[in-house]
Fold this sequence. Notes:
Blueprint: E1 2-12, E2 16-19, E3 22-34, E4 40-50, E5 65-79, E6 82-96, E7 106-107
Antiparallel strand pairs: 1-3, 1-5, 1-7, 2-3, 3-4, 5-6
Amino acid sequence: MSFEINGRLAEKFETQKVSDRFQKREFVLEIKSTGTTGFEFVDFIKFQSTQDKCSLLDQFNIDDMVKVAFNLRGRKWEKEGQVSYFTNLEAWRIEKIQNETSEPFIDTPAEETFPTQDAPFPSQLPENDSEIDDLPF
């Protein structure tokens, strides 16, 4: 699954060489949003880049506004009978945003969007079936 999000680059860490064949680099975006009550919420979301994508961060500075394209990945890990699950946000593209807006933008794939119109609550439905007459015949 591929997604995009805008935010402020809050942290970037050095590349970690995990093994001879694997390296990763982590960074954190600060995402600000305003809830329906008017309160501002701040989230700090950690991403990682792997292998040749570790160098993507080299051209960016702390406090830059960026757009990150990433994949959502989940892994199962077992050791000594214990099962653990991990979720990673794997960044594969980072772009600087010229228009420095503080509004977050999350873009989901078209096949995963859902209708915005909600079904009525049971208290909003008519009490008997005779009040429902939306059939075309």
